Amino acid sequence: MAIQKGIKQVTSNKKAWHDYFVDEKYEAGIELHGTEVKSIRLGQINLKDAYCSFKDGELFVVGMHISPYEKGNIFNKDPMRKRRLLMHKKEILSLFGKTKQDGYTLIPLSVYFRNSRVKVEIGLCRGKKLHDKRDSIAKRDANREIDRVMKSRNR
After folding, report:
1. According to the model, what pLDDT value does residue 19 have?
2. Closest residue by Cα to residue 62 from 78, 74, 44
3. What pLDDT, on a 0 to 100 scale, did the predictor assign at position 77?
4. Burial level of 2, CB count in 10 A (0-12/13-18/19+)?
5. Element (H or E) spanning 108, and its range?
């Protein structure tokens, strides 16, 4: 995601990029309570095992952990509760149709602030096989080695 004016990245799901091929990206709002927003501002959020699911024509994110706000008391919510994602109905129905195809799933890729609103970037993903992961690691290592050689050559 390119850095733009008014956008502050809070967290990203690096495991998703390792485990999945990301075909398309979408931006969605998220329904939160006040103390959850304060925890997100402090960076106390984890997307590691999160995924999206559909229920009654609505899209929910499951497995996103937002730690309870330290200074909040009775207003803190369950850290692992399902949270509704806010998208247009046509987008949700389109995503529902695409996830019914073989091997596709919706994974939250990052959480960020756009101006003062919390947004979630979700990706339409296909799972990687073990050999695909090995290929990705080999390419990354090769690029790293090329950069290292080029840097030493320019000195």
Report:
1. 86
2. 78
3. 79
4. exposed
5. strand 104-114
